[in-house]
Amino acid sequence: MQKTLLTKLSIIIGLCIVFSIGLTMISDIIYERQYYAESVIKEITQQHVNPQEVINPFIAIPMTVTPACQSNASDTPNIKSKCEPSYSKIETIFASQTQAAQDLKVNTDTYKRGIYSATSYDGQLTFDQSYTFAETLENLDQIGNTIDNDTDKTQLAKTITHWNKAKLIIPVSDLRGVATLPTVTINQKSIAANYPQIPMIENLTYVEVDIPKDVLEQLSNLTSQQNEDSLATTGSIDTALNKSEVSSQLSSPKDNQALHIVIDLPLAGISNVTTVPTGQNFTLSMHSDWQTPNFIGKALPNTKSITAAGFNASWQNQYLTVANNQYLSQCLSAPNQQCTIISESTLNIDSHSYNPDSLEASRGLTTDSAAVAGSNQSVLLNSFGVSFASPNDVYLQTERAMKYALLLMLVSFGTFFLFEVLKSSRIHPIQYLLVGCALFVFYVLLLPLAEQIAFWQAYMVAASACVGLIGWYSYYVFGGLKRAVIFTTTLAGLYAAFFGILSTEDLNLLLGAIFCFVILACVMVMTRKLDWYKVT
Question: Which of 61, 63, 65, 64 is nearest to 92 (CA)?
């Protein structure tokens, strides 16, 4: 008798092993379909627009630096001094205050490839900025000519600031998402934005705005009528500022005037949008009609509100803002632009092109610009934003459902086996096999249905089909309606319980553990008086 029991249990265990192999094959199909969906989204981004990363606009001023010439006092007059070649760099002026506001509408039907689609967004990004000239000149105080008393220097280092080429830079990681050029207002005067014909910053995609002549005059603090005439006639202001000039200019009342800039930037992208804060005081507020935002980046929002109508969120992080000022200004001031600014959104698409370890190390960039130029480093700025995650990721949900597949089969086979030993029903191994195949078909149906309709609908259709088929078949297996109804109800309850566990993402592990305990307790209670030595 015990031999018959062991044989039956061995058959059940063998069937579970066979179906486990089949479930592994279905898991491979899930990964394959998921990879294909991701490749389709990547293709859409290549043909349309990438996820967007926007850097807070700033003013860039090109400069030409001529290093000091070196010579020895003991050298004869006929020996030439050793002079390093001149090089160019960019000096940055950040806003003293920035209020950024994003209003985005999200759509999942804009870009489609068959059953696959990319989550796109389209909206408006507004920057309201203030620049204080006094603070600007204090920063530029360190970049002018320096007097060195070292007797080994025969010619002083010289820095020429090209004020006539100063630009307002509006960096956007993928300009294909800027359908029309932004509207820019400087001191209540509308200024046209344009794409750079000859980029001032070679390794950054941006839209630029020419600084008005009267603003340039304020920035350069012209003190002579000759320079003012030069500005009016030629629009050229190339000055070499030294410490004494800057100190005297700071006393002028107009230095404390604020430059007010408002930028309305139309922005479209896919999947996520991030913003890089710069300046002194940066705040970002975002509104969208998307109900399931995933906040990403180096900082979470300070305040957020998520409702059925969408979400509102706001960020303010002074540490990240100051750190970005250092990284960005240091990279742009590297001689001859030998430092690259890398977009986080680009890394998400082409992560194989970069080494994450080296990028993290680049955040601690040295303050020596010569060292930066020599190492050709890349800078990854700190950003934060939102990923518009799909609330119905069918591949993730199907994969989670697969984790309970073996438990479902064990409970179903166990219920069959209990009917066999408690009610003296004779069930052939072939009948176990057919019921197992019906349970297996549930997962075969679930994935393709979920790709076409909502996951809960796919789950309900697949579960109803399998429960109905197994319930009808069990009527003939058990030879009676009552046992068939009990088994069918138990199976339907299992599917319902598993769906409830899947729906509670935060408690699914706890509920799964409790469910397993309840199943075990039910089996032990039902078999507590069973004499297993008498089971045939």
Answer: 61
Cβ proximity of 165 and 200 under 8 Å: yes
Owner of token pair 């994935």: 447
- Which pLDDT belongs to residue 245? 40
Amino acid at 131: Y
Amino acid, single-letter form, for residue 303: T
The per-residue pLDDT for range 151-170, each reduced to its tens digit, is 444 455 677 878 788 889 99
Q: Is 192 exposed, middle or buried (0-12, 13-18, 19+ CB in 10 A)?
A: exposed
96: which 2 tokens? 């003293």
For the ranges 211-215, 285-289, 341-345, the maximum mean pLDDT occurs at 285-289
CA–CA separation, 289 and 409 (whole Å): 42
Three-state DSSP at 15 gives helix
Q: Where are the alpha helices (DSSP H) in 225-298?
A: 225-234, 243-249
pLDDT in tens, 297-336: 899 999 999 998 889 999 999 999 999 999 998 888 888 7
Partners of residue 98 on adjacent β-strands: 129, 282
As beta bridge partners, residue 266 has 124
Please state, in angstroms and rounded to a whole number, the distance separating the CA atoms of residues 54 and 345: 10
Helix (H) or strand (E) segment spanning residue 370? helix 369-375
Going by pLDDT thresholds of 50, 70 and 90, the confidence category of residue 346 is: low
Beta-carbon contacts of 80 under 8 Å, excluding residues fewer than 6 positions away, are none
Closest Cα to residue 450, out of 495, 402, 404, 397?
397
Q: Which of 329, 157, 142, 330 is nearest to 246 (CA)?
A: 142
Q: How many residues in the chain?
A: 536
- Is-contact 435 473, C-beta < 8 A? yes
CB 187 within 8 A of CB 259: yes
Distance CA 135, CA 59 (A): 13
- Is-contact 379 341, C-beta < 8 A? yes
- What does the mean pLDDT of the chain come to? 77
Band (139; pLDDT cuts 50, 70, 90): low
DSSP for 457-517 reads HHHHHHHHHHHHHHHHHHHHHHTSHHHHHHHHHHHHHHHHHHHHHHH-TTTHHHHHHHHHH
Q: How far apart are CA 102 and CA 519, in angstroms?
A: 51
Q: Pick from 246, 321, 319: which is nearest to 96 by CA?
A: 321
- List the structure tokens of 381: 């700025």
Take residue 103 and report the two structure tokens written for it.
């209003």
pTM over 0.85: no
Please give the full DSSP string across 171-230, using - where no structure is assigned.
EBS-GGG--SPPEEEETTEEE-EE--SS-SSTT--EEEEEPPHHHHHHHHT--SHHHHHH
The tokens for 210 are 């020419």
